[in-house]
Amino acid sequence: MMKQLSGVIRNYFIKGSERSLTVKRNVLYSFLIKGLSVLVGFVIVPITIGYINKVQYGMWLTLSSIIGWFSFMDIGLGNGLRNKLATAIALDDYDNAKKYVSTTYVLVMAIAVLAALIFSFINPHINWNKVLNVNEPGLNLGFIVQWLFYLFCVQFIVQLINVVLTARQESASVSFILFLGQMGSATAIFLLSRFTEGSLFYLVLVLTGLPPLVLLIAGFFLYSGRLKAIAPSFKYIDLSNARQLLGLGGFFFVIQLGVIVLYQTSNIIITQLMGPEEVTTFNIAYKLFSVVTILLTIAITPFWSAFTDAYAKDDFVWIRSVVKKIRKFWMIVSLGAAMLLLISPVVYKLWIGDAVSIPFSLSMVVFFNVLGNAWVASHCYFLNGVGKIRLQLVMYLICIVVNIPLSIFLGRIWGIQGVVMSNILIHLLMSVVFYIQTEKIINKNATGIWNK
Fold first, then answer.
1. Per residue in 241-264, pLDDT tens?
2. Which of 266, 272, 285, 249 is nearest to 407 (CA)?
3. By the 8 A CB rule, do 168 and 226 touch?
4. Are 41 and 291 spatial neighbours (Cβ–Cβ below 8 Å)?
5. CA 207 to each of CA 140, 187, 211, 248, 394: distance values in angstroms, whole numbers, following the listed order
6. Positive or negative, the Cα torsion across 262, 204, 220, 103?
7. How many CB atoms within 10 Å of residue 431?
């Protein structure tokens, strides 16, 4: 029996097209690496809460969400690079590939430096105690946020190595680099908890400083080695390519804004309506069920660039087969998440003890939220890969207009659960629209906005 099972597994990883085999290897390695990352992520939470406290942990989560809003600063260049680079590699056009990488780096670097300078002038005039709805006179929040933003700008630049690796269908390498950064942060937090008093500033330095350092080192070694053919170079900077990168990237820019509004505003709304301690409550529940998102992201991330490759070669048979498999995987993961929901009270008890109390109703709405997010993402990765994103643009514009007022309205009625319910309703609408668009494109009968 074991011999037969071993044969089936072995055949799975040695049979199929080169594109399929590349995806399978990346998914397997990513699962192994991400499994370790999930464990590390769960361990970090109680250590961090123990190092500072529930309120300051909520402040950190809210601050990181606010700074995360600035990820839109790349104006879609990252995603534009991913698609353009994947297409160039599929066509063996390495000269243009190097130009795309070099041009993106210089543009993103210019944006990051400009943003850091502007923020340096604006930050002293922001009352962060009021923004976070706290009274912490002993904390110099302005100083902490300044450092947080500077480190974010560094990561903003060095994380482009992940975009390049993903375009090359090497998502497992991305997972490994992120895991190293996470391990560094976890080790540092453990040492801080043993040898220092609780400090939000130290926590910010560790959690936002070590990951970009790892990315910087990884980029240096990779571009000096196997990625040398597409390594960024001043000689290959071609600003005429900026229009191509921004043409597609401009749509991604608006989509990124919509994603920020949908996923990065919940913490600030919760802290304003209910206080930063409730941000901790929400994020612990979200952390538990984010396993669903992590599993699906691992499975579908390699397919973005693979879809680009297949679409460039008109391989719709392969595309149709893969989309069906992704949907089946979503169903399997959903069943596992339902079982996790049932035992969630026990899991919380074992994980964080009595430090934070999580209502079952909150677990339930977070469960439906992550399932909706996973279903939307499973279709958006295909649509992004083939460059059909105009309809996403429309949907995320609706999201930008609707989500925040709806979250506030429902949050005042039902607390944290109401804030999450707003996301669920938007996911429901997107799920239907993107499913229909995917089917139309696969069946080659998409017209009008469905094919843009």
1. 766 666 555 566 667 667 777 777
2. 266
3. no
4. no
5. 18, 11, 7, 32, 35
6. positive
7. 18
| Alpha carbons 52 and 204: distance in angstroms, whole number | 12
* Stretch (H or E) spanning 182: helix 171-195
Q: Which residue has the tokens 């799920």?
A: 431
Q: Which of 108-112, 131-135, 233-237 has the lowest mean pLDDT?
A: 131-135
427: its two tokens: 């996911």
Report phi then psi at 328, rounded to 5.
-65, -40
Long-range residue pairs from 415-419, CB within 8 A, at least 24 positions apart, any chain: 415/273, 415/274, 415/278, 416/270, 416/274, 416/278, 416/281, 416/282, 416/362, 417/359, 417/361, 417/362, 417/365, 419/266, 419/269, 419/270, 419/273, 419/282
In contact, 417 and 289? CB cutoff 8 Å: no
CB 170 within 8 Å of CB 26: yes
If you average pLDDT over every residue of the chain, what do you get? 83
How far is residue 77 CA from its own chain's centroid? 16
Residues 161/222, Cβ–Cβ less than 8 Å: yes
Residue 362, SS3 per DSSP? helix
CB 64 within 8 A of CB 49: no
Cβ distance 267 to 65 under 8 Å? yes
| pLDDT per position as a tens digit, 358-396 | 999 999 999 999 999 899 988 988 888 888 888 888 888
Q: How far is the C-alpha of 389 from the C-alpha of 386, rounded, in Å?
A: 8
- Evaluate if residue 325 carries a pLDDT over 70: yes
| Token reading at 59 | 């402040």
